[in-house]
Amino acid sequence: MVSKQKVVIEHELLDEYEVGDFFIETPKRTILGKGVYMHVPTGEPHQNQMEGLSDRVASVLKKAKEQGHLRSVVTGAVPFDYYKKACLLVPESIQIAPSLQQEERAVSGSASVTVNRLVSNPSPEHYKLGVMQGIERIRSGELDKIVLSRSLEVSLNEPIDLPQLLRNLAYQNKHGYTFAAPIEYGNQKASLIGASPELLVSRQGMYAIANPLAGSRPRSEDPVENQRREEELLSSPKDLHEHAVVVEAVVKGLRPLLKTIEVPEKPSVVYTETMMHLSTVIKGELLKADISSLDLAIALQPTPAVCGAPTEKARQAITEIEPFDRGFFTGTIGWCDAEGDGEWVVTIRCAEAKGDSLRLFAGAGVVSESKPEEELAETGAKFQTMLRAMGIDTEQLKDI
């Protein structure tokens, strides 16, 4: 599918993005979808929306092709809670270009914005109490791991310039996945925008790749300190355990769908602009040709990297501890074509944007050895990706 598309210069795709478009840049390609040709139907109300989703997507792609829409690709986002509706559609038009992430890019300038209101939900102190609740559940044997998050509700003095924010994220996010997509809650429309470091899964032909990240440290501006933190991360029993739980779950989810699977013995470290993470690249050959990238994503999402383990118990505990609805945060965003190829990204380092307000999200993995103040600091560091791209002076946010 990708090879058949019109090839354009990637910066033109960024320049052409408008609010309501679908955009994603990955290490391999950039995709811009405009308009709506056909929506993917939702499942029955109050039912698991993942049941039958792959079939509904395949049916829509087939129908679009039969109607002469030859460049049919489904794009969009799936929420964390599978009982909430996904926002998936076939764009009216699709443009695909090679990624220019590795090219030298000029710094995209943007004026600083003024924050009228900024609220942490939960508050820092209540977040630490929530982490303690998570630790207690782990030590009681109920859970192996839980990921607990918080949101920052930001109100600005003027409407958000989403095209500029997306451009800033793309220029700063040199090795990850920058995205924007229209989302909807009932009749409320918004934009999901972010720069995730984590590939959930991709499929090309008969081969699949997953790249779980778990175990983190904030990145320093001092290279020597970064080296120390990287060595600490690679030898930390707490972080290695947290990472192993995620890798084990990803392998378990993929194994029934793969003929072969390759798993490195030890994780490596990947860097983002603000963080460093333990990373494992898992590769395999599909068992059957009709297994799509979306099938693979549904089999994996949510991983313990964004939820916990065991999955359903962790998900229930999250609803009891976190005082807000995650929405599309820690869901997945991406695309799938008629051949089944596609890429699905873990929706983190992101925000929901509408008018002059945004809701940012960040989470941290909690295991028995976790310390509440360290998990709080980790969420604060993860907020920096969006805050910097927005031009917000982060010095004023030290206590958030």
TrEMBL record:
Gene3D superfamilies xrefs: Anthranilate synthase (3.60.120.10)
Domain Chorismate-utilising enzyme C-terminal: start-end pairs: 124-382
Keyword Isomerase: yes
Region (Disordered): 213-234
EC number(s) stated in the UniProt entry for this protein: 5.4.4.2
Bias (Basic and acidic residues) ranges: 218-234
Catalytic reaction annotation: chorismate = isochorismate
BP GO annotations: salicylic acid biosynthetic process
GO molecular function: isochorismate synthase activity
Keywords: Isomerase
Pfam (any one): Chorismate_bind
NCBIfam families: isochor_syn, PRK06923.1
Entry similarity comment: Belongs to the isochorismate synthase family.
PANTHER family membership: ISOCHORISMATE SYNTHASE ENTC (PTHR42839)
Protein name (record): isochorismate synthase
Organism, as annotated: Solibacillus isronensis B3W22
Lineage: Bacteria, Bacillati, Bacillota, Bacilli, Bacillales
Gene name, Swiss-Prot/TrEMBL: dhbC
